[in-house]
Design brief:
By secondary structure, the chain is α+β, with helices and mostly antiparallel strands. The chain is 15% helix and 32% strand. Strands 23-24-25-26-27-28-29-32 form an eight-stranded parallel beta barrel, surrounded by five helices. Strands 3-2-4-10-7-8 form a six-stranded antiparallel sheet. A six-stranded antiparallel sheet has the order 34-33-36-41-38-39.
């Protein structure tokens, strides 16, 4: 029945196109196109069921070619509008796949199509669904306004029954308006002024449009919360039309065998579904139960939906004084890519469901166990694929901004949409973490907003108040960003993660988006890519022993002028050399760190644990052999480390002496206790610096590192310097740091 109705919708849509006018739809050619653009079928655009966690048997897909016309902001509906364009829904107006590919700073358009309600749906309430429209949508059916919605990322629907005529063609018209966050609306990485890591904006309908028939008494929402400790699911079935309606719930295994059931459950109130010896969901074994729910009113069944659920528990526990992340009682390390969710031909909209699944499976095949969905929300089917494939998901809330004069509106809009997004997607077992803010973009009321999210998702998921930059002491996660080298933040109660690192640029001729370059570090060959990626992964392993629980590599694919993806933007080229060999092996080494028996033992502590005295000068007149053991530094002043000037949160309380000159020279004798040669061979530095740093041990060069970092990182000691270290004796460390611009620290 489902396939029959989908085909019928496509045929009816084509009939409507032919009667509207002579304009035909034609795909535009973008600077780059994915392989899936070559198989676009306007009669079957994203034809899979769009809401897999509450599936009804009968539905109608309204994706396909619609009429389009440019509108005036605030324009009222008119039945005699002339539509002079054709657009392929649900691709955004700015995309090549839409057939429009138009940009402006104030997008206003009217969409229109006609359809005939199938006979099998007549006599029922008809719900018209829009899974996402950016940003404002006002919907008319047969000239009657049926509702409005604002917010570019959450699904919504209207009951259009009262606006339908008794028979024949029905007209749907949609007015959209989008100014790309000019008033502070959440917009993620969309930008009118595209540069760096800001991309082409998207406007209008960008996820599936569909309708379904329901009885007046029907289910409106399911809430599913796994409780591993008590071997049960906590469920709530919400319904409308009869407050006395009851639900029957059946939980079954993948083979269809009944595992647990409840009968006559009151709607709108929580219930508990016990599960004997539940199978647990994990990336290694993504076990999913099927849920079948029927609704009854007055002794008659009025609705039936299918769903699914996974039993899993995510939590932070203290292990030997270090907060660690546990899944189902086992400590885990998460590693995965930053996923912007952009496509060169569809922008926000993947060209097909196959393309959505491709990204997930490709990352899983490389060994990753997690994906961070970066300040964008995907269609429900993307999360379904993660649930089925076994990928942990960090879900960012799309970032707002706070333009002057619109701050109150922006705050209210962000909060309201955040709650709706969580309501729409929180049941997916793959989503183990929600990220409230990213790098301070539009960040406000951090403690209060984080508590809003905690109240919605805890204990089912972890919460990070801010990924990078402006942290507040709330939530489960403390997150740092650093490029290209990974870093580990510091916290005694929250699990520490590196929410962004890497960004290795490798340009692939023939797969380059025009407009310039933006990146953090670059290599020339696939072999160089793998070598550097694995080198960074080794540093992640080092940070694990200092408390790191997860690392997010930037990024899954190139996006426009960011060419630092593991894949090219068009998903045609996998960049690394030996991606399922050397690179995958290193990823698995990181993920398996919690099972390693290697222990880290500090030999000489850093300035964050102990305030050491150093001899130092900040003038550029140090003698040639200032780093040698025989140099007389008695005239140098003595001061307490650390030295510098910084506004970074993790330098508060760390810096003791201001340093603002272009250079600083430092010397200190330290006592190396009773250590073995094997321990010396394993020793490494822990350094925190900005910018270039040069280190000497006992007068011998030990390390040089260019650039800056935003936290302590491990770094190798040269073999020559290592050989000079004397146990049970005093040894000399000498450091030179050069500051180029910005803040300084050493």
């Amino acid at each position: 029945m489902k396939i029959k109705h989908m085909i019928a919708a496509s045929l009816l849509l084509l009939t409507g196109i032919q009667t509207a006018n002579a304009v035909e739809w034609q795909m535009k050619q973008g600077p780059m196109m994915t392989p899936w653009s070559e198989t676009i079928d306007v009669n079957n655009i994203l034809g899979e069921y769009p809401r897999p966690q509450m599936e009804r048997e009968e539905w109608l897909n309204l994706n396909g070619v619609w009429d389009l016309r440019k509108a005036v902001e605030g324009e009222a509906y008119q039945a005699d509008f002339t539509y002079d364009k054709k657009i392929l829904v649900p691709f955004p107006i700015e995309s090549a796949l839409s057939g429009i590919m138009e940009e402006s700073d104030n997008q206003c358009y009217w969409y229109r199509r006609t359809l005939t309600i199938p006979e099998s749906m007549k006599g029922k309430n008809i719900l018209l669904h829009f899974d996402a429209v950016d940003w404002e949508a006002t919907v008319y059916v047969n000239g009657k306004k049926v509702g409005s919605h604002t917010g570019g990322y959450d699904p919504f629907y209207f009951d259009i029954t009262s606006a339908l005529t008794d028979g024949g063609e029905q007209e749907i018209a949609v007015y959209i308006h989008d100014n790309t966050g000019a008033e502070g609306q959440p917009k993620g990485k969309q930008a009118l002024n595209k540069w760096g890591c800001w991309y082409t904006p998207v406007s209008g309908i960008w996820q599936t449009v569909w309708l379904e028939p329901v009885n007046p008494v029907h289910i409106t929402r399911l809430s599913i919360e796994p409780d591993v400790d008590n071997s049960c699911f906590k469920l709530q079935v919400n319904a409308t039309g009869d407050s006395e309606a009851t639900a029957d719930i059946r939980l079954s295994d993948p083979d269809g065998n009944t595992v647990a059931s409840l009968q006559g459950v009151a709607t709108g109130t929580p219930c508990t579904l016990p599960v004997n010896a539940p199978e647990l969901w994990s990336p290694e074994r993504p076990y999913l139960y099927d849920l079948n729910i029927t609704l009854s009113s007055g002794g008659q069944q009025t609705d039936a939906v299918k769903s699914y659920c996974g039993m899993r528990k995510i939590e932070v526990k203290n292990v030997d004084g270090t907060p660690r992340i546990f899944l189902n009682g086992t400590q885990i390390f998460q590693m995965g890519p930053l996923d912007q969710g952009w496509w060169p031909d569809g922008l926000y909209t993947a060209p097909s469901d196959e393309a959505l699944l491709f990204d997930i499976k490709a990352m899983k095949e490389l060994g990753f166990n997690m994906i961070r969905k970066h300040i964008k929300v995907e269609p429900s089917r993307w999360y379904m694929h993660c649930d089925r494939e076994g990928i942990l998901v960090w879900q960012d809330l799309p970032s707002p901004n706070l333009p002057e004069g619109h701050e109150a509106f922006a705050r209210q809009t962000f909060e309201e949409e955040a709650v709706r997004i969580i309501d729409a997607f929180e049941n997916h077992p793959s989503i183990v973490q929600w990220v409230v803010f990213n790098e301070g973009w539009g960040q406000f009321d951090t403690e209060r907003m984080t508590q809003v999210v905690i109240d919605k998702v805890s204990p089912q998921s972890l919460v990070c108040c801010a990924s990078g930059w402006n942290d507040a002491e709330i939530g489960d996660i403390k997150d740092s960003h650093s490029y290209p080298y990974p870093s580990c933040p510091i916290d005694q109660k929250r699990a520490c993660v590196n929410g962004e690192y890497g960004g290795i640029t490798l340009k692939v001729p023939g797969h380059i988006w025009p407009g310039g370059d933006f990146g953090y570090t670059a290599v020339e060959t696939p072999e160089d890519f793998t070598v550097m990626f694995n080198d960074l992964a080794d540093k992640i392993k080092d940070h694990y022993y200092y408390g790191l629980n997860a690392a997010v590599y930037t990024q899954l694919s190139d996006v426009e002028i960011e060419k630092n993806g593991i894949y090219t933007y068009d998903r045609r080229i996998l960049k690394p050399y030996s991606p399922t060999g050397e690179l995958k092996d290193k990823i698995l080494e990181c993920i398996n760190m919690p099972q390693s028996d290697v222990k880290i033992q500090p030999v000489v502590s850093t300035a964050k644990e102990h305030k050491y005295k150093w001899k130092f000068i900040t003038e550029d007149n140090a003698p040639r052999h200032w780093f040698s053991k025989g140099f007389d530094d008695s005239l140098w002043p003595k001061g307490t480390a650390a030295f510098g000037k910084s506004s970074l949160w993790n330098t508060q309380g760390l810096i003791s002496i201001p340093w603002t000159t272009p250079q600083i020279y430092m010397r200190r004798w330290f006592y190396l206790g009773d250590v073995t040669q094997e321990m010396i061979d394993c020793m490494r530095f822990m350094i925190y610096h900005d910018d270039d740093i040069f280190i000497y041990i006992n007068g011998v060069w030990a390390a040089t590192k260019k650039g800056s970092v935003s936290n302590y990182i491990p770094y190798d000691i040269s073999d020559e310097a290592r050989q000079t270290l004397k146990p049970n004796s005093w040894n000399l460390i000498a450091v030179k740091c050069i500051q180029g611009s910005g803040t300084s620290k050493s």
